[in-house]
Amino acid sequence: MRDEYTAITRFADLDTQRHVTSRTYESFALEGRYRMLAKLGIPFEQIKNEQISLVTINGYCKFHRQQFPGAELKVETTLTPSPEGRGEQHWDQKILDTSGELVAHLQQSTRAEKSGVPFSVEVVTKDSSEPAGQILYENLKPWSGRNQRVISQYQIPYADRDFAGKYNAAALWKIFEEGRWMFVEKIGLTYERIVELDTTSFYMGSIYNFFAEVPAGRTLEVVTWIERIDKIRYYFRQDVLHNGKLLLTMRDEQLIVSLSKARPQRASAEFMKYIGKYVEFD
Question: What Gene3D superfamilies does the database record attribute to this sequence (predicted)?
Fold first, then answer.
């Protein structure tokens, strides 16, 4: 089953690197998923009144083309039953610019809940038997214990919850974004040092697994390390815990970029002095 609609980016969507932030694309995708529920006979009014929510289990995102304010984007959503079964949904969503070029590609597996109770969303359409295509998310491996990690504390705001009192995927991505900032601060990569090293990195995409609901307003433990370095890329890993229980985990891809040349480069020896002991696999 398919849906498409048009979304427009705003100045408010820009991040510190003056590009549209990744969370904007996930918010566009979330709108597409709720539009699909409406097509399945669950209108917005019912979704709101009965607190019907789509709880993310696993996900993938990849960003292909930077965007700026005022960009008109087409959000294409395809829904199929999850290959995992168990009544879950598999979402494949592409965001394209006006020339048809791919801007972002997102996938999620979700389960529907009504006021916190599992709720059946039956995908019965003429194309419901259509194969889901390549599944781009996976179950991430636990930390091997081979390297050092940075442990930070993050109090998630009560106000980041949605209409159903839950943290949607975009709100949970924010935890990982904060974790990356706390990591670079704690290892000494200040803005001045980044300029001196002529090295920064761009967030290119992620795979993530969500295991349990994040409790509202609590202080979370964010554990951050680098899984590996592959030429001009490195891969962050982060675990989010509360009272020792693993709630979320993510692996994200970072493109290493020269500030002065504005193009990709390998990690320099000086850069490695800061991150080397946090790298899990050589």
Answer: Hotdog Thioesterase
pLDDT in tens, 179-189: 999 999 999 99
Q: Any idea what DSSP says for residue 19?
A: S
Q: Does domain 138-282 have CATH number 3.10.129.10?
A: yes
Q: What is the pLDDT of residues 88-113, one digit of tens each?
A: 999 999 999 999 999 999 999 999 99
In 3D space, the residue among 224, 216, 258 whose CA is nearest the CA of residue 240 turns out to be 224
Contacts of 172 (CB under 8 A, 6+ apart): 56, 210, 214, 248
Residue type, 27: S
For the chain, what are the domain ranges? 1-124, 138-282
H or E, element range at 203? strand 199-210
Indicate the SS3 state at residue 196.
Answer: helix
Residue with token string 């795979």: 207
6 with 73: CB under 8 angstroms? yes
The model's pTM is 0.93
Which residue, among 237, 202, 243, 203, has the nearest Cα to 219 in the 3D structure? 243
Please compute the mean of the pLDDT values over residues 11-20 and round it to a whole number. 91
| Contacts with 40 (C-beta within 8 Å, 6 or more apart), sequence order | 1, 121, 122, 123
Query: Is 58 in contact with 137 (CB distance < 8 Å)?
Result: yes
3-class secondary-structure state, position 98: coil
Q: At what angle do helices 22-39 and 169-186 cross, to 10 degrees?
A: 170
CATH fold label, 1-124: Thiol Ester Dehydrase; Chain A (3.10.129)
In this prediction, residue 123 carries a pLDDT of: 67
